Amino acid sequence: MATVALRYTGVSVGYQGRPVLTGVDLDLRAGQRLALVGPNGAGKSTLLKSVLGLAEILGGAASVLDRTPARARESTGYVPQTGTLDPDFPVSVRQVVMMGRYRRLGWWRPPRAADRRAVAEALDRVGLAGRARHRFGLLSGGQRQRVLLARAIVARPRLLLLDEPFNGVDAISQEAIVRVLRELSADGAALILSTHDLTVARDLADLVCLVNGRQWAVGTPGETLTAGPLRQTYAHAAVDLADGRMVLVDP
C-alpha cells in the first residue's frame, strides 16, 4: 500500500481563529496528484498554506507525511503564484533555484558542489539550463514559473504544493510543467495543485477536491467534474459540458 502523504479528517482552516474553509476530508497517497478547484476566495490557497503550517488548523485532524504540517515542511515543496514575487529584485535564475537548498545548507554556509549540481539538474529538468545566469525578473511569466518549480524540486520534496501554477503561462511552459509533474508523481512524490482550469484538473489529476468555503466533493475527475457538483461549488453558475470541454459561466 502506498504511503499516506496527507490525511485531513473533518478539518477547518483559517486565520486568527476565523475559518476560511471547513469540512475538509482528504486522503492523498504517495505518487497521487490532487487538484483543488473552486472560484476566487474559495479557500484553495489557505488550504495549501495549512499543509505548510502557515494557516491554522482550527478543527479536525491533520497529518502531513505522518507529522504535523509544520514539522513536515522540510519535506514539502511549494510553488507560489508568480505575482507574489517582485520581478525587479536583482537576482539570477541560478540564485533563485539555490534558495531551495537553503534548508539543507543553512543560511550561513556556502553552496557545495552537490548543491550546484542539484541546481543545474533542476533547471535542466524544467528546460531552462541555458538561462541560469539570466536575471529572474527579465524572464517571461511562464519561464519564471518554471524557475519557481525548479526551486521547489531542487530539494527533492516528498510532497509538492502548487498555487495556480498555470496562470499567465504560455503553452510551451505549461507543457514543460505538466511533463515535470508527471515525472515527479511517477517517482513517488505526491502533488497538490490549485487551478481554475477544469480541463487541466481533468487531464492531470488523479483526484479532484471541489471547494468554496467548504469542501463540496472529492473523488476522481469523472466523479467530481460533472454538472451537479460544479453547480454546487460555483453557487449554481451554469456549467457547459459541450464538445468535451468544461466551461463555467458567471451567473
Set out the fold topology.
Layout: E1 4-15, E2 18-29, E3 33-37, H1 44-51, E4 56-64, H2 69-72, E5 76-79, H3 93-98, H4 102-105, H5 113-125, H6 141-153, E6 159-163, H7 171-186, E7 190-195, H8 198-204, E8 207-211, E9 215-219, H9 221-224, H10 227-233, E10 238-240, E11 247-249
Parallel strand pairs: 3-7, 3-8, 5-6, 6-7
Antiparallel strand pairs: 1-2, 1-4, 8-9, 10-11
Helix pairs in contact: 5-6, 6-7
Give structural notes:
The chain is α/β, with parallel strands linked by helices and 251 residues long. The chain has one domain (4-88, 157-249): Rossmann fold. It contains ten helices and eleven strands. It is globular, with a radius of gyration of 18 Å. The mean pLDDT is 90.
Question: Brief description of this entry?
Answer:
The chain has 251 residues and is of the alpha/beta class. It is 33% helix and 27% strand.
Largest sheet report: 6 strands, mixed
Strand portion, in percent?
25-35%
**Number of distinct helices:** 10
Strand order of the largest sheet: 5-6-7-3-8-9
CATH architecture: 3-Layer(aba) Sandwich
Our count of domains comes out at 1
- CATH homologous superfamily identity: P-loop containing nucleotide triphosphate hydrolases
- Summing up helix and strand content along with how strands pair, one would put the structural category as alpha/beta
Q: Could you tell me the number of beta strands? A: 11
Overall spatial form: globular
